[in-house]
Structures are given as structure tokens and as C-alpha cells.
């Protein structure tokens, strides 16, 4: 039997059970992007949901702001292994935006200003799991964090929460996005450490 010095294991943090495997806590909000930061004026911003049948639903910035707002507090987990707990947002639930969308599609491809894409099962956008977020920590969402608005899907790794979101295309078949075609996991569950293809 090995001998372990008293205190060698360290002290358990109260929030350890909120950290997925392999993650460490940060207090700041790291900025990681696949390309340059798009600057999208609110008067030119729009968000769309396009169905598999070709019908498109559109919202201007003012129309988005007129919809019911929610203020979720969620934990964020980045594939680069940092986690930030209790982040405070304001935005519109995807449940609200999908209310009048008729679709039988199981898959969604998210599009961003700047050309970024990521794929998600439609079920991961509904039932209180996702928002179009436009405020962070009581302030307008800064461009480097995806402002004026980003997708927020906190139960998956953060690359699925597409910054500078401009639309969702609903699909009958899955279509991998930017990082997924570059070798990242197709789904990205932080609790299963689904970082890369094959995980």
C-alpha cells in the first residue's frame, strides 16, 4: 500500500462537479475565433431560419428585440479546456423563433457573418437548450464575443455556439460545419470529452 502525505491530493473545490473531464476554470473570458471579427451594424443585421422545403423566416434586429427575452445563467466549456461558470446572458430562446416554423428536419447547419458554420441536431436547439444571445453580463455583446448576436448552446462545447450568427438552415441530412470538417467531433459533448473525431 502506498503512502500519501497529508494534503497531497489537494482540496476539493465546491464547483468541481460542474467541471467536465479535462477542463479548468477561468475567471476571464478568453477570445478564440476562426477568422477576423465581422462588424455587423444592427440596422443591417438579420436572422433567418430556412426550412428543408425552401421557406425562409426572417427577423430584423428590431423584430428580435421585440420578442420575449430570457436571461439564462449558464456554464461555458471550450474545447481548448477552459470553463467559465455562471455566465449571465440575455437573448431569445430558439423555442420562440421556431414557434411558426414548419419542419420535419432533424439537422441544422448554423451560418455566421464571416462565413463560419457549425452543425447541430435540431433537438439540441429546442426545449430551453439554446438562445440567440445579444447581451452578456448586463452589457451589449461585444464583437469579439460574437456581437451583435451569437448562438448560445451551453450544453455543448463552445464552438457550437456560433458567434455573429445570421441564420439556421434546416436539413434532412447532417452536414458538418467548419471545425467538424477539420477534425473536430461532430457533436461535441463536454461531459464525454467529444473534442475530436473519434473521441
TrEMBL record:
Top-level taxon: Bacteria
InterPro entries (UniProt xref): OxRdtase_Mopterin-bd_dom (IPR000572), OxRdtase_Mopterin-bd_sf (IPR036374)
Pfam families assigned to the protein according to its UniProt record, in alphabetical order: Oxidored_molyb (PF00174)
Region feature (Disordered): 1-21
Annotated ranges, domain Oxidoreductase molybdopterin-binding: 35-179
Name the UniProt record assigns to this protein: Sulfite oxidase-like oxidoreductase
